[in-house]
Amino acid sequence: MRRTYRILVADDEEAIVEMVRINLEREGYEVITAYDGVEAIERATSERPDLIILDVVMPRLDGYEVLELLRAHPETKDVPVVMLTGYPSDIGAVAAFEHEADSYLPKPFDPETLIVLVKRLLSER
Questions:
Q1: Distance between CA atoms of residues 63 and 56, nearest Å
Q2: What is the CA radius of gyration of the chain?
Q3: Counting beta carbons within 10 angstroms of the beta carbon of residue 87, is it exposed (0 to 12), middle (13 to 18) or buried (19 or more)?
Q4: Residue 2, Cβ density class (10 Å: 0-12 exposed, 13-18 middle, ≥19 buried)
Q5: Which CATH number goes with the domain that contains 53?
Q6: Per-residue pLDDT tens over the stretch 61-85
Q7: Cβ contact 78:86 at 8 Å
Q8: CA distances in angstroms from 124 to 5, 8, 67, 73, 121, listed in the order given
Q9: 1 within a domain of the structure (yes/no)
Q10: Distance from C-alpha of 60 to C-alpha of 10, rounded to nearest angstrom
Q11: Which residue, 117, 121, 120, is CA-closest to 23?
């Protein structure tokens, strides 16, 4: 029996969350959602996802602050994180990797690219 991976999607744009959720569920993943940085931290620590997809610009805590808190917490420090950002590619990528993200995807993105990235990161665990 194949293991079902749990993925947390945190973004304040409901349309992005829904698009990502639909595509991940179609691939057989369980999806947890959060719409701001504080909720993302709460869901990550209580739901123990296998991977986190995290937007940079969110209310209450931005994605970089969330990532720093995740990396400092013993239960979430090793969870792979994909950062989503509308910043220009080079700026967004550098900032994401400086904050210890495992990968980065600029908005807008192709859902199929995200799926391939998710599969790769989960296979490396």
A1: 4
A2: 13
A3: middle
A4: exposed
A5: 3.40.50.2300
A6: 999 999 999 999 999 999 999 999 8
A7: no
A8: 13, 18, 20, 21, 5
A9: no
A10: 12
A11: 117
101 within domain boundaries: yes
How far is the C-alpha of 102 from the C-alpha of 81, rounded, in Å? Answer: 5
Q: Render 5-29 in DSSP notation, one character per residue.
A: PEEEEE-S-HHHHHHHHHHHHHTT-
Domain count, the chain: 1
Q: Residue 89 belongs to what domain range? A: 6-123
> Is the pLDDT reported for residue 118 higher than 70?
yes
Could you identify the residue written with the tokens 């420090």? 77
Q: What whole-number distance in Å separates Cα of residue 19 and Cα of residue 24?
A: 9
